[in-house]
Amino acid sequence: MQLSQSISEIKNIGEQRTKKLNKLGVFTIEDLIEYFPRDYDDRSHITKISEIKLNQVNTIKGRLIAKPETMRMKSIQITKARIEDNGAILELVWFNQPYLKNTLKPKAEYMFTGKVCEKYARLQMENPDYEIIDNGELLNSGRIIPIYASTYKFSQKLFRGLIFEILKEIKGQLEEFIPDTVRKNFNLCERSFAIENIHFPKNDESFFLARKRLVFEELFLLQMRLLQLKGNIKKRKSGAVFNNLSYNEIKERFGFELTNAQKKVINEITEDFKTNTAMNRLIQGDVGSGKTAVAMTAAFIAVKNGFQCAMMAPTDVLANQHYESFKSIFEPLNINCVLLSGAQKKKEKNEIYEKIKNSQADIIIGTHAVIQDAVKFNALGLVITDEQHRFGVNQRNLLAEKGNNPHILVMTATPIPRSLALILYGDLDISIIDEMPPGRKKIDTISVNTNYRSRVYNFIIKNASEGRQSYIICPMIEEGENKELKAVIEYTQKLKDEVFYNIRVECIHGKMKSADKQEIMKEFSEGKIDVLISTTVIEVGINIPNATIMLIENAERFGLSQLHQLRGRVGRGADKSYCILISDSKNKITAQRLKVMTQTENGFEISEKDLELRGPGDFFGTRQHGIPELKIANLYKDIPILKEVQKAAQWLYSVDPDLKLDENQKLNKRIERFFEFSDYKISL
Questions:
Q1: Average pLDDT in the 613-641 region?
Q2: Domains of the chain (ranges plus CATH)?
């Protein structure tokens, strides 16, 4: 049996089980052995019946006294059996499992694991797991047993047995690909030991050794690829040479003093411009920290040196807002800005294409429309992508390929924990705007249940009567299976009819036509709409200084970082602002998350807590970044291992960046396989 073989070739698997395994992402033998347990149950401690711990889970070794009996009580079938251990007897009870009457063998010795309680003055173990003791190795009792995530109706027993048999079949085939020097310097066990003991650990020490090795290798493959990618990018000569780095002219147009953090980041950008290699920089900054002014400064420098700047935003609404902002700053400087979006008519698009091609357009702002084949730049020197987590790596590079190695500036208002940033943006230099402009008012954040809704509505009505505006956010567009979720369309109509009948209310959502969304946002920005009910389409970038209330329905449905983004849509003007989170959830994690929102406005603190509570997989989909899904590493818990990985990767990269030495050939092949379906390409 080979690791590359299809699971359909495993004996007794069959077509139906193959389909179930495929749904788990398991297609080959190697996929199966790398389907790691999500948890473990320590059943290695065997308790005598005479020493049973009441109301706790016990593992008992005993002999079945007689054939089990099944009886019916109303609609329930109860199967009872008794086991004996050194003269002590324990009763076992199963509900609605009558087949056990013919499965369990009298006089045979078994392991039983279950909770023991007292019923009718007798001790009973209810619904225990069981395993017969024969000459084979125990998989489900008497040891630390693995528990796997969703197994599509495979029982845990069946799944364990399948993996156990496969591990026996492939013994000796698990190739070592981490170089010996790295493995020894960082005390890593062999891969064969790691795979065996991650599934069936001999003891706690074996498990921790196995897990460290597998986490290390997963992060090591990522870091090596990212170092190679970054190294290749650093070698790229940019066709955009900027000799004039002065930006006083645009600084005077802002009408405010740049913060020290903004000046620092602008300085890092101009230092990049001085080199003959292409800039590849990420700007991280909290909501309202002034990233747009930094982007405008970079765009100004590009245009003043005879080059075009393209800016890509994730939504029509945000692209349109950027366009209006840029136009107000740049047009008085005789710098021409154009907007390109999917909603424009063909004739209008063709006219814009012509302007871009002939350099009549200096700054081009748009959505994905700017990376279409029809868009031909004459002298693209700078590419800016806003809210980078909404785009994949490949999309960013499609835009970059429209020029001669243009400089790349990436912005995000989603603060990302350093550990996650090193993975998601390992190919970028990172700048952080860690200072807010003076005068930014604190937003009071309140978490309440639905009993407070009428009071909140009255507060919104009062707010509107005083000339201020409000947002209400719903997590869904249409009524789905979860009836408790507010459907934005139905909810809007209900509020119009029953609550806000004296003020103007409109809704906006992702399924609307772009032109309709733009019209509503225009009216909202002009103060013609008092309450805007929306899905998360307004999550990023929208700037309405007169909006002072952000009400978020079903707040438990949003991640912390997303809640923080939504909150950042208010507090942009001179008036006091509020963010109100409504949730009836009794979940403890939800309560913790909402409490964090009421206690801090620091986006980086919030993102760390988000990563801790939800895990990296949910922080935002890493798949869209072209990064392979992590099977075992946890970017919150495994920071110490990540630091070791970075040391190891940097050392190996310094001695053999292309992994051409004989001892690194296996690692190189493994990296290629790891990134086989990824958007990350070394050749960039």
A1: 65
A2: 45-142 (2.40.50.140), 248-433 (3.40.50.300), 443-600 (3.40.50.300)
**Helix segments in 235-315, DSSP class H:** 248-254, 260-274, 291-304
Has residue 43 got a pLDDT over 80? yes
Q: How far apart are CA 192 and CA 559, in angstroms?
A: 38
At 132, is the secondary structure helix, strand, or coil? strand
- Give the pLDDT band of residue 397 (cuts 50, 70, 90): low
Asked whether the beta carbons of 262 and 312 are under 8 A apart, the reply is no
CA nearest 485: which of 618, 551, 584, 579? 584
Q: How far apart are CA 146 and CA 389, in angstroms?
A: 35
Helices (H), 170-280: 180-185, 191-199, 204-234, 248-254, 260-274
| 222: number of Cβ within 10 Å | 25
> Is the pLDDT assigned to residue 50 strictly greater than 50?
yes
> Which pLDDT tens digit goes with each residue over 640-674?
898 899 899 999 999 999 999 999 999 999 998 88
Given a contact cutoff of 8 angstroms between Cβ atoms, the answer to whether 645 and 227 are in contact is no
Task: Please tell me the number of Cα atoms within 13 Å of 102 on its side-chain side.
Answer: 2
Judged by average pLDDT, the poorest of 290-299, 385-394, 401-410 is 385-394
CA neighbor of 536 nearest in space, from 343, 314, 289? 314
- DSSP assignment of 507-561 equals EE-TTS-HHHHHHHHHHHHTT--SEEEE-GGGSSS---TTEEEEEETTGGGS-HH
* DSSP letter for each residue of 388-399: GGGS-HHHHHHH
Please name which of 402, 241, 398 lies closest in space to residue 307, comparing C-alpha atoms.
241
Summarised one tens digit per residue, pLDDT across range 309-361 is: 999 888 887 888 899 999 999 999 999 999 998 778 889 999 999 999 999 99
d(CA 102, CA 133): 17
What is the CA 89 to chain-centroid distance, rounded? 51
Q: Which of 235, 291, 288 is nearest to 265 (CA)?
A: 291
> What phi and psi, each to the nearest 5 degrees, are found at residue 578?
-135, 145
- DSSP summary character for residue 478: S
What is the spatial distance between Cα 361 and Cα 354, in angstroms, rounded to a whole number?
9
Please report how many Cα atoms fall inside a 13 Å half-sphere around the Cα of residue 605, on the Cβ side.
9
Segment of 81-90, 283-292, 365-374, 536-545 carrying the highest mean pLDDT:
81-90
pLDDT of 135-150, one tens digit each? 777 888 888 999 998 7
Rounded-to-integer distance, Cα 298 and Cα 629, Å: 34
Token pair recorded at residue 300: 């100004």
Q: Is the pLDDT of residue 502 over 70?
A: yes
Q: Write down the residue that tokens 């489900």 correspond to.
A: 140
Can you tell me which residue has the tokens 């099977």? 631
Find all residues with CB under 8 Å of 206, minimum gap 6, and list them: 193, 197
